Each structure stands twice: as structure tokens, then as C-alpha cells.
């Protein structure tokens, strides 16, 4: 298939939906009145020719377009040429996830601060890796028991060689080999722990667990023996392996993306509020889909421009293909969207995730930056901001 469009620069944005076996292709430049450009689409590549040169983009192995299926061809002001095609995406690489990074029981593991690599717990042998029940488990037990609930008011605490996993945190038992200094003891009134970890307590002292090197908040103490580490702050590796250097923004978005995918699959939950450890709501997230593969390129660049939002790189090289989780979001800082946030917080179909407040702000910056890289027509939907 061949087509002609006006564009000063050959920008390419391709989103392939694996489940739908379809693709959205956007070609062109936001500036109007550019030079003529010829576009040629083959099953395995895209080619853009203009007076300034030729740009060719090869699709990843396992991805095929069907050029004859082109439909919905239109020019969108500010974007360029839009068209839809059938696509065949035969592969699906499992994303890197902290949910699986420590999932080998019987191994000695080391807990690291993700931000700086400081060792928090050294050579901890994990004999049991167990998921925690969801926040309404007590009510379900009441429905099933014909007698008094034997688990009432009995929070689940890990033993010395246990690691319990919640929605976005780990629970581990404190031990004398903990490298992390004890939490600060300055008096401060703190809130109850969020409902998803089901540990009900009202500490009267500062419960923050702080990295002694970079001063980042890693988690909170929930009892004299149990510490809660947030998955966005900790990397757990077998002790024989070295600390993996992962860019901070890539790690945060990978953890959040996998968390949303896991929860939406397990609980049919697609709307989320992200709260800080201080109880304030920072972001509203609405998961649209998790089966997208995104490819983007600019003619003026010698390498493919990577798309940096809530994605996992398929390969460690300079591949142009990224798995993407598509979400809508609304920021709630400085009293923005207060009414909408209040409505979501009272809705039982909305799931709450709690992270350090600094990480919530960090994620908001990642979302905003990623949204700005989308073609203008894809940045908003029903007053929400869109991103992939």
C-alpha cells in the first residue's frame, strides 16, 4: 500500500494491540504545510520517503502488518496521517517484575535499596513466599464460618524465614542481621495502615524505615518484629547475584504497571487511587488495556526513540518495541480533582494502592512526561489524560 501525506518530518507512532490483532499508525508532523512524503507499508517494515531522505523502520520479529487491510485513512490536524490495519503479534514477552524477582524459595536472598544499592537485609533464607489475602478476607471468613471467626483481630505476621507479599509491598520479619538502622523515634502522629495490608494498628511514633545511605523511605514498621517494604523501593536478589543497576524511572513504572495488571486480572479492578503513606491521594489511574506494543521513531534521530511510560523493554538492546500498559490518569495534588477523588475513594470498585509520598510524586512526573510524548490527539480522553 502506498499513500502520500504532507509532513515536514517523518514521525512514526505505531500501537499494536495483541488481543485485537489490530494496529493504529500515525505518520507525520504536527506542523502543517510540510514537504510531500511517500509512505510504503510492507508486512515487516515501514518506509517514509521525502525530499530530505528516506527513513525505514523494521518491525520486531513476530510482528506482521497486513497492508491490504488499511482503513480509516484520515488526516488529523496536529498529528498527521491516521490509519488502522490488521496486525499479527505472535509473541508476548513476560515483563520484568518485582513480583517474581524473589520467587525462589529455599534461596538465600539479599534486600537492596533500589535507589542506591545499599544492602538492607543480607543473606536471608526465604523458606516461604506467601501472598497475603485481600483486604476483605475477614468479612469472607465471617460468611463461611458457622461459629465465631477464629481469625478475628489476628493480623498475619511473617516468621523469620517468611516473606509475605501484598499488593505493592513485602512483609518480612526483623532479625539481628538487619543492616538498615532502626526507624526514627521522634514523636509523630501517624495514620492507620491502609486497608489493603489488613494490619490494623495506630503507632504513636515515627514508623518510617529510611535508607541510611540515600535517606529514601523504604517502608514502615508494623510491629516490633515485622517490617513492611514497598516494592517500588526494594530489590530482592539471590545472594550470589550482584545488585542490578536499573534506572529509577524504569523500575518504578515497571513495578506499577505489573501491579495494575496483576490486580485487574485477579480482581477485575480497573480503577485505582494512589495514596501516599501520609494518607493523601496523589493520582487517579484508570487501566484501559495491557496488551499494547508501541513503536515510535523520528526521522531526525539515528536511533529509535524509546517510549518511556509504564512499559518494559523487550530486550536489553536498542529495540524499538515496548510492551505498554495504557492508562488514563488525573493528578490530585494541590486540591486538584478533589470532588472526583472523593467519589473514587468511596467507590468499592476502586482499589487503593499505598506508596511513599515521594514515589507518588515521582510517578506523577513520569506520567506527565510520557503523556507529553504522545501524539496530541491521544493525550486526553473524557477529561482524563492518556498515556501508554
TrEMBL record:
Signal peptide: none annotated. InterPro entries: UBQ-conj_enz_E2-bd_prot. GO terms for cellular component: cytosol; nucleus; ubiquitin ligase complex. Pfam families: HECT_2. GO terms for biological process: proteasome-mediated ubiquitin-dependent protein catabolic process; protein autoubiquitination; protein monoubiquitination; protein polyubiquitination. Its EC number is 2.3.2.26. It catalyses: S-ubiquitinyl-[E2 ubiquitin-conjugating enzyme]-L-cysteine + [acceptor protein]-L-lysine = [E2 ubiquitin-conjugating enzyme]-L-cysteine + N(6)-ubiquitinyl-[acceptor protein]-L-lysine. GO terms for molecular function: cyclin binding; ubiquitin conjugating enzyme binding; ubiquitin protein ligase activity. It comes from the Eukaryota. E3 ubiquitin-protein ligase which accepts ubiquitin from specific E2 ubiquitin-conjugating enzymes, and transfers it to substrates, generally promoting their degradation by the proteasome. Independently of its E3 ubiquitin-protein ligase activity, acts as an inhibitor of CPSF3 endonuclease activity by blocking CPSF3 active site. Interacts with UBE2C/UbcH10 (E2 ubiquitin-conjugating enzyme). In vitro, interacts with cyclin-B. This is E3 ubiquitin-protein ligase E3D. It comes from Balaenoptera musculus (Blue whale).
Amino acid at each position: 500500500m502506498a499513500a502520500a501525506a504532507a509532513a515536514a518530518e517523518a514521525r512514526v507512532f505505531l500501537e499494536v494491540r495483541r488481543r485485537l490483532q489490530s494496529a493504529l499508525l500515525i505518520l507525520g508532523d504536527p506542523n502543517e504545510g510540510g514537504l510531500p512524503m511517500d509512505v510504503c507499508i510492507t508486512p515487516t517494515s515501514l518506509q517514509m520517503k521525502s525530499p530530505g531522505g528516506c527513513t525505514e523502520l523494521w518491525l520486531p520479529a513476530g510482528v506482521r502488518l497486513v497492508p491490504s487491510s488499511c482503513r480509516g485513512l484520515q488526516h488529523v490536524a496536529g498529528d498527521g496521517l491516521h490509519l488502522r490495519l490488521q496486525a499479527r503479534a505472535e509473541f508476548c514477552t513476560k515483563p520484568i517484575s518485582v513480583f517474581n524477582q524473589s520467587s525462589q524459595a529455599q534461596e538465600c536472598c539479599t534486600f537492596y535499596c533500589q535507589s542506591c544499592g545499599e544492602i538492607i537485609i543480607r543473606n536471608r533464607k526465604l523458606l516461604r513466599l506467601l501472598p497475603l489475602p485481600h483486604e476483605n478476607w475477614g468479612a469472607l471468613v465471617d460468611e463461611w464460618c458457622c461459629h465465631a471467626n477464629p481469625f478475628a483481630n489476628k493480623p498475619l505476621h511473617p516468621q523469620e524465614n517468611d516473606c509475605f507479599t501484598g499488593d505493592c509491598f513485602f512483609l518480612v520479619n526483623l532479625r539481628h542481621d538487619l543492616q538498615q538502622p532502626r526507624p526514627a523515634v521522634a514523636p509523630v502522629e501517624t495514620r492507620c495502615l491502609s486497608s489493603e495490608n489488613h494490619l490494623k494498628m495506630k503507632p504513636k511514633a515515627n514508623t518510617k524505615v529510611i535508607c541510611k545511605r540515600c535517606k529514601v523511605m523504604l517502608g514502615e514498621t508494623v510491629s516490633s518484629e515485622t517490617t513492611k517494604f514497598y516494592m517500588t523501593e526494594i530489590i530482592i536478589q539471590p545472594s550470589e547475584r550482584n545488585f542490578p543497576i536499573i534506572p529509577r524511572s524504569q523500575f518504578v513504572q515497571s513495578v506499577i504497571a505489573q501491579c495494575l495488571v496483576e490486580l485487574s486480572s485477579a480482581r477485575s479492578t480497573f480503577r485505582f487511587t494512589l495514596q501516599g503513606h501520609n494518607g493523601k491521594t496523589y493520582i487517579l489511574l484508570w487501566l484501559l488495556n495491557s496488551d499494547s506494543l508501541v513503536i515510535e521513531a523520528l526521522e531526525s534521530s539515528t536511533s529509535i526513540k524509546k517510549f518511556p511510560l509504564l512499559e518494559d523493554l523487550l530486550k536489553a538492546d536498542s529495540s524499538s518495541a515496548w510492551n505498554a500498559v495504557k492508562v488514563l490518569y488525573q493528578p490530585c495534588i494541590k486540591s486538584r480533582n478533589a470532588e472526583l477523588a472523593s467519589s473514587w475513594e468511596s467507590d468499592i470498585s476502586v482499589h487503593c494502592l499505598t506508596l511513599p509520598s515521594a514515589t507518588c510524586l515521582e510517578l506523577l512526573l513520569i506520567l506527565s512526561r510520557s503523556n507529553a510524548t504522545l501524539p496530541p490527539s491521544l493525550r486526553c480522553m473524557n477529561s482524563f489524560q492518556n498515556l501508554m
